[in-house]
Amino acid sequence: MGKNNVDLICSAGELTGIFEKSHSLGQFLQQVISVVAWHMRAAVCSVYLIDRRTDELVLTANQGLDPGAIGRIRLKQGEGLVGTAVWELRAIREGRARQNPNFKPVPNIGEERYEAFLAVPILRGSQRIGALVVQDPQPDYFDENDEKALRAIAAQLASTIENADLLLSLHELSGNAPGAPGLLPAGQPFIRGISCSSGVAQGAAVILTVAPDDGFRQASAASAAGEPPAVDFQTALTRTEAQIEQLQIEMEAKLADVAALIFGSHLLVLKDEQFTGAMRASIARGAAPAAAVKEVVDRFVHLFSTSVNPVLRQKTLDVMDLGRRLLRNLYGGSDEEANYRGTIVVASGLLPSDILKLSAQQAEGLVVIGGGATSHLSVLARSLGLPMAVVGDERMAALPDKTPLLLDADQGTVFINPTEDILVRYRDLKSAMTQAEQAAADTKAESLTQDGVRIRLMANINLLSDVPVALRLKAEGVGLYRSEFPFIVRNDFPSEEEQYRIYSRIVREMEGREVTFRTLDIGGDKALSYFPLVSEANPFLGLRAIRFSLRYRQFFAPQLRALLRAGAEGPTRIMFPMISSLEDFLTARDVVHDCAAALRQEGLPCAEKPALGIMVELPSAAEIIDDLTQEVDFVSIGSNDLVQYVLAVDRTNERVADLYQPHHPAVLRVLHRVAQAARRAGRPLSICGDMAANPKMIPFLLGIGIHTLSLDPRHIPGVRLAIGGIRLADAEALAAQAIGLRRLRDVEELLGLGGNEGA
Q1: Among 96-105, 144-153, 400-409, 431-440, which is the least confidently predicted range?
Q2: What would the pLDDT profile of 265-280 be if each residue is shown by its tens digit?
Q3: 632, 641, 719: which is closest to 684 by C-alpha?
Q4: CB of 21 within 8 A of CB of 241?
Q5: Each residue of 717-744: b (16+ CB within 10 Å) or e?
Q6: Within-domain flag for 175
Q7: Residues 379-425: pLDDT tens digits?
Q8: How far are the Cα atoms of 122, 221, 223, 283, 646 from residue 234, in angstroms, in the given order?
Q9: Which of 16-25, 154-163, 594-603 has the lowest average pLDDT?
Q10: Pairing of strands 56-63, 74-76
Q11: pLDDT of residue 125
Q12: Which of 149 and 703 is assigned the larger pLDDT?
């Protein structure tokens, strides 16, 4: 039987299935190597992990060698072929392993008859975790496809192993449980906040916060009242595990780009003996099951939230969610009750992965307490259709569970115990919005001004789940795919193969429409938890976007290779963010050409001459725009960051939010200058960001010559309608007048902006 490795071993779904049936990391790894060995028809398969105490590689799982070697074989990094692969961060493939000078024989384990050898490092970002190794008696047995498959499986393994390491760290912690915050004034009807993701949601409050003096919120009124459980603890535990496994399966199907093992830490904690084992022990000593769950969850929440390990702190909500599920299942709650259907979640300190989990568990809306929500949290919530607002009043955390709430995320308002009049008004509003979207989906795809000028409306895409929405609302293509989201929500860098699968799927699903991919844009308020950068006094002016990519080309090159390969499947463009100089673009272009040459040499299909463009977001790029347009293939204006940098206003800072003014005369003149330069050079020009979706700014944009707008697909119907009411000649006259104005209030009057409405 021939090898069947790439299709099966690269499947995240297969790994997920193995993980769900395992009861420990060791059992998981042992089952993985059995699957790998079978698919590759390899006689030997091994996993080595780094012991952080000694910095040695330890044989942790094996099939084909003496079982007694597990835990006994230890190698220094750089020692032997395995140690060399890990130390040098590269795969080592040998037809006859003993001929390599780095080969180190290990006696008495049955290794003597195996000639062919292949080892790949297991990495989380650039951090070494271990190695995955296969061996076989037949010389020259492993080929390039085997190496590619082993790299893919190693990338998937890294995330699971990281979660296991976190649990080991947790076991070394100790502390006391926290206790309860002050209460909101009685009868307070609503709290005002800031809109992050539009929509209206109604539901009962579920409080998932870690506040001073606040223990775990019991999710079941029955447990709080002391009623006896409907089922025994083991039945509730089994049911909880099954629910989480089903959630993971659903996430993989709906959000394959960002959902890889996203509930992995839930399952690991649930299977950890110090978590559920402590609950069993407490019950055996005579404690009520609900009390045992609450006691252990309280302790773990405290340990997680006070840990010095930032990655461990990020798992706090996972533990609280597990406690809530266990209580629901103990008291006979339905599967729907175990999720968040019919509820509005009130939480603090959220991560992108938390947003995904809450959406997967069918939360109706989300209220984030304290601090401004970072822009990528807002964008992610919008893509998931999850209404979200941020409120500064931390007393929201003291609301009793099940308090009726109505969230108007368009205005950033949370109504507490809303009256029937308010509920009726918002039900009518929600119904009208649904009908308007349905009517918009039935309109023509072309967007024409009143005098017949064609305007292209493109979609901003953050997740694969945005693509069907963009197609339904008749976007003409993708003007901006924000490639950072598969990076931000994971526990390690996605491999080239993982990225290629995401990018190629977007290209295929857009069915011949043009797709513009923006390369990785992290930094500022978009951080990678698994690749912490040196703390920066002002991260928005630090190592972000193209600066990060050019500094760390070991991550930039795999992304470019994946984009180039996807480009062989349909019309694509590659766009570089935060370009500040001509050198930035030319250096990035050289890396693209090097990657394309390497792919051609490897015989992999790729885009031969991809269109390469820039985002104009910085004043420096606007100043040298004539030089840049001589080199680039296209230009896109990133309006959100451009406004921020031109005005020196942090758009995530609530204290200066009123100073973030896209209609500022300086911003209008910069836009005009960029549009003129693009026209002179004959380069395609588009604009993305909030400005592209603001009907009162659109006449100005059309008037200065920007005829391609890229926006959230849900805004396309409204913008198409606005364009249909504009005569281009009138827009050009208005734009010429606006550029000559000196005062904000004059611009606001001309464009019909009420005060700060344009912000």
Answers
A1: 431-440
A2: 778 888 888 899 999 9
A3: 632
A4: no
A5: bebbebbeebebeebbebbeebbebeeb
A6: no
A7: 778 878 899 988 877 778 878 888 999 998 877 888 888 888 778 77
A8: 35, 21, 17, 11, 60
A9: 16-25
A10: antiparallel
A11: 66
A12: 703
The answer to whether position 180 is within a domain reads no
Q: Which amino acid is at 548?
A: F
HSE-CB of 370 using CA atoms within 13 angstroms:
10
Q: Is the pLDDT of residue 338 over 70?
A: no
Domain count, the chain: 3
184 within 8 A of 416, measured Cβ to Cβ: yes
Closest CA to 716 of 687, 700, 692, 686: 692
Stretch 292-311: mean pLDDT: 82
Confirm whether 45 is a catalytic residue. no
Give pLDDT, residue 410: 77
Helix 233-254 × helix 12-20 angle, to 10°: 180
Same domain? 235 vs 342: yes
pLDDT band at residue 432 under the 50/70/90 scheme: low
Q: How is 639-690 classified by DSSP, letter by letter?
A: HHHHHHHHHT--TT-GGGGGG--TT-HHHHHHHHHHHHHHHHHT--EEEESG
Task: Indicate if 378 and 320 belong to the same structural domain.
Answer: yes
Q: Is 438 among the domain residues?
A: no
Task: Report the interhelical angle of 233-254 vs 289-305 (nearest 10°).
Answer: 50
Q: Do 252 and 342 share a domain, yes or no?
A: yes
Choose the catalytic residue: 664, 688, 707, 715.
688
Judge whether 328 and 219 are in contact, CB under 8 Å. Answer: yes
Do 402 and 485 sit in the same domain of this protein? Answer: no
pTM for this entry: 0.69
Check if 23 is active-site: no
Residue 133 structure tokens:
């190794």
Q: What is the pLDDT of residue 245?
A: 85
Domain containing residue 164: CATH number: 3.30.450.40
Q: At what angle do helices 25-40 and 12-20 cross, to 10 degrees?
A: 140
| 114 and 210 share one domain | no
For every residue of 239-300, DSSP letters joined together read: HHHHHHHHHHHHHHHH-TTT-TTTTHHHHHHHH-IIIIIHHHHHHHTT--HHHHHHHHHHHH
Asked if 261 and 371 touch (Cβ cutoff 8 Å), the reply is no
**CATH label of the domain that carries residue 608:** 3.20.20.60
Give the domain range for residue 572.
446-751
Amino acid at 205: A
Residue type, 89: L
Task: Please tell me the distance from the alpha carbon of residue 252 to that of residue 13, in angstroms, as a whole number.
Answer: 7
- Percentage of residues in the chain with pLDDT exceeding 90? 43
Please give the C-alpha separations between residue 213 and each of 34, 180, 209, 281, in angstroms, as whole numbers. 48, 4, 11, 26
List, in sequence order, every beta strand (DSSP E) within 87-193: 92-94, 116-124, 127-136, 190-192
Q: Given a cut of 70, is residue 19 above it in pLDDT?
A: no
**747 or 263: which carries more pLDDT confidence?**
747
**pLDDT value of position 754:** 60
H/E element, 355:
helix 352-360
Model confidence over 718-759: pLDDT tens digits? 899 899 999 999 999 999 999 999 999 999 999 988 644 433
Question: Cα(488)–Cα(467) distance, rounded to whole angstroms?
Answer: 19
376, 663, 664, 707: the catalytic one is 376
The H or E element spanning position 605 is none
